[in-house]
Each structure stands twice: as structure tokens, then as C-alpha cells.
Amino acid sequence: MILLEAIGMKKRFGGVNAVQGLTIKVEKGSIVSLIGPNGAGKTTVFNLITGIYPLDSGSVYLDGKLISGLPQHKITRNGIGRTFQNIRLFKGLTCLENVLTAYDHRMRYGLTEAVFRLPRRRSEERIARANCLKVLELVGLTNVAEERPENLPYGLQRKLELARALAIGPQILLLDEPAAGLNPHEVEEFIDLVRRINGDLGLTVLLIEHRMRIVMSLSKWIYVMNFGELLAEGRAKEILSNPAVISAYIGEEEIC
């Protein structure tokens, strides 16, 4: 079953064709990677899927429902969580509060209940706190729940951003270079974490990553972009042996 389908996506910025008629499909329960050289258009694809940029043409479907053209918050509520290349956490809030901001839309109480702090609001807040603590436990951050993210090492900030994306309650996670800046030990922890998220929670993952070790370890299917276009697609072994991909990208990367 196809969970996410982006068909014929095009985006132009001035005289630059950032994305040129790209079509990708992501099966439910799979881990799919989108790779390519810097400037290939990978992050632009994520921004088009999540509504940060409007499509010039094309369409995006999530679980069979057209989501392209919807506001960003509605696309998120339909079940897309994402992280960013550059970490975007709320300074001044604790780690737990950062995760709670993403969970907020899942709480069920009205304006009157919020203003007067009626029992339903208090009950929903207890449930939200408990569920967000479970998310922090999943990514290994329970012991820093009350810390502020700016006080954490870079690798833990990456985990916190992932936790916030999980708190949305997504059907699919879009991870934009989530292992950037991680040391080799942290990379291995990240690979294990994504496998657990995919296997234990059943979440579908679409991944942008430059480290071929991660891509090859995790991906069921790989799309390769170059200059805004689809250069190749296939399983890991097929991509590794594709001359065009080797010339454009993999020849410059360290796989192990």
C-alpha cells in the first residue's frame, strides 16, 4: 500500500528549476531514502510535501488524500512529522515542553475548559504529559526532560527534534539529514533508533541523508536526485552499481 505519493512535482525559483517533474512513492511501513549531491533539490522536495513551498505543478497524496495546497498545519495534522537540516527547537522551554508543543493539537478540550481549567483540561494535560514522557523515553531523553535544549549536547538536541516530530502522532516521518554532526557512536545509535521507530511503532520513514552507511543500512528503496531531477531509483545494491549514480554522487561518498 502506498502511503505517500508525490506526482510530477515542479518548483522554480527565479531562473532555477529546483524540482523538475519529480515523482516518488513511499510504501506504508517502509524506510525510503532520498539522496543526491548538495543542491540537488532534496530539501525542497520536503518543503513541497509539507507545504512550506507551494507547488508550481504536481500533487501530493497522503494515504490516498490530496494534501498539496493545504496549509502547513493541516498537512501536519493529516499525519506528517518532520525534522530539519538546521535544528529548530524552542529555547527557553524545557525538553518536555518542546515535545508538548507538538502534542497540543491532539488534546481535546474547548475554550471555556481552557480558560477556567476545568477537569477535562486537567485530565487531557495529564495524558499529554505522560505520552510525551514516553516519547522522550523512546529516544533516550527521560533524564533531561526538565533541561532546556540549548544546554544539551548537539546529538541530544537531534534526538529531541525527533521526539517532537513523533509527538505529532504522524503516519510518516520526514527526516532531513538527522545524523548531520553526529559522531560514529551516535550514528549507530541513530540507525538503531530509526529501526525501532519503524519496527515497533510501525512508522513509515522518508529520509534525506548524506552518510551512505545510514542509507544502505536502513533503506528499502532509494531515490537519487541530481539537478532537481530523478537520476535513478531502486534497492541499495542497484543504486550502488548504477554508473550514473556513482559518477554523480556515490563516487564522492564513503560508504562504510
Summed over residues and divided by their number, the pLDDT gives a mean of: 91
Total number of beta strands:
10
- Structural class of the secondary elements? alpha/beta
Low-pLDDT runs = none
Oligomer: single chain
Note the gap between the termini.
32 Å
- Largest beta sheet: strand ordering: 6-7-8-3-9-10
Describe the main β-sheet briefly: 6 strands, mixed
Radius of gyration from the alpha-carbon trace, in angstroms: 19 Å
- Give the amount of beta strand, in percent: 15-25%
Count up the helices: 10
The global form is globular
Helix share, percent? 25-40%
Instruction: Spell the H/E element sequence.
Output: EEEHEEHEHHHHEHEHEEHH
Quick recap:
With 256 residues, the protein is of the alpha/beta class. The protein contains ten helices and ten strands. The chain is globular and about 60 Å long.
Would you write up a description of this structure?
The protein is built from 10 helices and 10 strands. α3 packs across α5 (119-138), α3 packs parallel to α6 and α5 (119-138) packs across α6. β7 (172-176), α7 and β8 form a beta-alpha-beta unit. It is α/β, with parallel strands linked by helices and 256 residues long. It is globular. The longest helix is centred in the middle third of the chain and has 20 residues, at 119-138. The chain has a 6-stranded mixed sheet with strand order 6-7-8-3-9-10. The model has no long low-confidence stretch (mean pLDDT 91).
